[in-house]
Amino acid sequence: MVAAELRDVTVHIDTGRWSETVLDAVSLAVPEGRITALIGESGCGKSMAAAALTGLLPATAQRSGQVLVDGTVAHGRPELRAIGYAPQDGVTAFKPGEAVGAQLRDLEEIHRHWSVERACAAAGYPAEVFDLLPRQHSGGQIQRAALAAALLPSPRILVADEPTASLDAENAYRVWKTLREYADEGAAVLVITQDVPMLAATGVADRMAVMRAGRILVEDSAAAVAALDNPYVQGFFREG
Ligand SMILES: Nc1ncnc2c1ncn2[C@@H]1O[C@H](COP(=O)(O)OP(=O)(O)OP(=O)(O)O)[C@@H](O)[C@H]1O
């Protein structure tokens, strides 16, 4: 069953100094028990698609089309708050002036689903840096902390924006394994990623959606996308 969905979503951003259509009639389904990988060139709108799905579009954005959760139209952030979200810049997942470990403990207390220990082990976030402020973390450490924070409430729908971008191969593998296990438990997982050769080699993603210039070019099983005779798509499957 499709847990979350963008249906014909167009997002136009007008900052006053410039304006741009960042999503152009995007339809994207995120089914239960599956990992859907969203791929595409830099700036094509992947993070905007995640923002539309989680109700976190910039204030300057105008959106048309629909966001659906379990087939019901959601009208904004309050209805989409239950979707777990690990942002591309992990620092933004935390308050700046408080140690990350303490903030994770607060989430554990509020939600009472996963323990901090379980979430940190799943994300590979090391306990040694618990007492540091968000900005005192390395890029890879705060990215893993943000994933731990997103997992703590045990959301049925999880959106992770480039969760392995700053990680070495071993930690990246651990994160992919965690996401696979999480989807196997029934969650609907959407992952924005550049790790396409790794996904192809391990078969960890079930589905892929490819974006270009604000549009979805193709959305299909990972195997079908990998087999597409399209130079833009094939470019993502080659080792950089
Ligand atoms: N807060 C914002 N306000 C206005 N425009 C934005 C904002 N964030 C992103 N954009 C614009 O929206 C477009 C899509 O950006 P987006 O971040 O979704 O790309 P992306 O595919 O995730 O790129 P990357 O792989 O580099 O992270 C870009 O043209 C970008 O300049």
Automatic annotation (TrEMBL):
Annotated ABC transporter domain residues: 4-238
Localization: Cell membrane
Single Gene Ontology MF annotation: ATP binding
Entries under SUPFAM superfamilies matching the protein: P-loop containing nucleoside triphosphate hydrolases
Membrane association type: Peripheral membrane protein
Record key words, sorted: ATP-binding, Cell inner membrane, Cell membrane, Membrane, Nucleotide-binding, Translocase, Transport
Domain of life: Bacteria
Family indicated by similarity: Belongs to the ABC transporter superfamily.
The name this protein goes by in its record: ABC transporter ATP-binding protein
Organism: Amycolatopsis minnesotensis
